[in-house]
Amino acid sequence: MHLKLFLRKILKAVRTIPLLGHLIDCKLEDFSEAFKELITILTMSTLPLTLGALLLLFTDKSWNNEYFKALLFVSNNGELFLYSASLIAPIYYIAMQKIKTRKEFPSTQSHIFLVSLIMFISIVFFNASHLRIDLNDNYISNFSRYIFIISTILLYLALVYRNSRMSTSLRDMKETERNYVEDYSAHRSRI
Predict the structure, then answer these.
(1) What mean pLDDT is reported for the chain?
(2) For residues 175 and 169, what is the distance between their CA atoms, to the nearest angstrom?
């Protein structure tokens, strides 16, 4: 009995960790669906960069078929800041969306704060790099990649939590339907 109480306390403590704590309440299906969504979003949203790198390889033989280097080159001027801001913008809607379910979006304030901070940083650095403000180009390039990775992780978390809330809502609907059918069947058998 003490072990169960101890485990409940640990789970309660884990749930208080901002952004990550409620992942323990999500199902494997929520993670896998979010991953599929994320891959689709990343593939489609970064097409200008990936196709730009391919175009560079086909038109300039000096790249020696080094796709990754070409991809780094086409995203070298802070473009990933713009992609980061665009990538995480839907989190505002996902986090504040009201779904008729028992679950609220976890760590709403933490998500909104981080999204706002990343958007602000992305806007400032993207504009600074394109207005030719004297900044270290290598620093800008590397920093934009880190921001893009963080943005991708934040979007993935938001998608997992959204899927978790949606699946709870769907389970509630199925349970309501099942109860209705059972009640109706019981009523019909009495007639």
Answers:
(1) 83
(2) 10
